[in-house]
Amino acid sequence: MLGNVDRARQIFGRWMSWIPAQQGWLSYIKFELRNNEMDGASAISERFVQCDPKVGAWIKYTKFEMKNGEIARARNVYERAVEKLADEEDAE
Question: Which residues contact 42 (CB under 8 A, 6 or more apart)?
Fold first, then answer.
C-alpha cells in the first residue's frame, strides 16, 4: 500500500464485494481511520452491518460513532439495530 491509498481502496472495495468475514471489514475500517477518513470508515461500517447484521457488528458501529463524537448518528445506528434485530427475533 505504501502511499497508494486510492489503489488500496480499490482492492478493499473488491474484497468487500465478496462479503468477507468480520475481520475483513474491520481491516478496511482501520485502513480508513489510519488515513483520517472518518466518513469513509463510517460508510464502511454501514455497509458492514447491512451485509452482516449481527449484534456484534451493530455494537461496534454504534461505539465507533460515539467515540468520534457523532452522538446523533450513534443513536440512529442503535435505534436501527434494535428495530432490525427485533424483526429477526420475531421471524424466528
Answer: 64, 65, 68, 70, 73
Burial class of residue 6 in the structure, from the number of CB atoms within 10 Å of its CB (0-12 exposed, 13-18 middle, 19+ buried): exposed
- The DSSP secondary structure of 57-77, one letter per residue, reads HHHHHHHHHHHTT-HHHHHHH
Separation of alpha carbons 61 and 48, rounded Å: 9
Give the residue ranges of DSSP H helices in 2-70.
5-16, 22-34, 38-51, 55-67
* Whether residue 45 has pLDDT greater than 90: yes
pTM of this structure: 0.86
Cα 46 from Cα 80, distance rounded (Å): 11
